[in-house]
Amino acid sequence: MSQSPVHELSRDECWELLRSNEFGRLAFHLMGEVHIVPINYASDHEVLLFRTSQGNKLLGVVMQSDVAFEIDGYVEDEAWSVIVRGDARVLEKRDDRERAENSRLRSWIPTDKEVFVEIVPEEITGRRFDLDKPWEHAIPVR
User: Fold this and answer.
1) Containing H/E element for 128?
2) What is the predicted pLDDT for the residue at 26?
3) pLDDT at residue 111 greater than cutoff 90
4) Which sign, positive or negative, has the C-alpha torsion 111, 51, 79, 45?
5) Among candidates 38, 39, 32, 86, which has minimal Cα distance to 60?
6) Which of 128, 111, 126, 1 is nearest to 53 (CA)?
7) Phi/psi at 74 (nearest 5 deg)?
8) What is the distance between the alpha carbons of residues 82 and 11, in angstroms, rounded to a whole number?
9) Which domain of life is it from (predicted)?
10) Tell me: the pLDDT tens digits for 11-67?
11) What is the C-alpha to C-alpha distance for residues 68 and 113, in angstroms, rounded to an integer?
12) pTM for the structure as a whole
């Protein structure tokens, strides 16, 4: 019997991947719809931080804090995915804002993003996938 190509990641492995990356996708509710947007983020003491400005993303997390966040990646023979489900909250206390400002969180684009948001995970899951792409070996070399 062959070994499964799907492997569950431990919580520690998930955090290692979250700490070593800085780009993912945030899913949130707004006006009865689910939205998903790319964000850059940082991890800080088992929470995730991102910056935003006034708009749908901020309105969505303020109106309904239940969010999901996902990162993924791949190399030639494996892929992985980590999903975080949790609550988002705007950081309003001075100490919280200073902690966020002192993290490695930096905006990737030069826009005004003065609002810090923290995602407190309730559930973290991850998987690693052994890839088998036989079609790559069937392509004739010229």
Assistant:
1) strand 115-130
2) 97
3) no
4) positive
5) 32
6) 111
7) -155, 155
8) 10
9) Bacteria
10) 999 999 999 999 999 999 999 999 999 999 999 889 999 988 888 998 899 999 999
11) 21
12) 0.84
Contact assessment for residue 83 and residue 125, using Cβ atoms and an 8 Å cutoff: yes
Place of tokens 């850059």: 40
What's the token pair of residue 4?
């499964």
Question: All domains of the chain, ordered by start, with CATH?
Answer: 6-138 (2.30.110.10)
Residue with tokens 């190399």: 75
Written as six digits, the tokens of 62 are 């303020």
> Which DSSP symbol is given to 94?
H
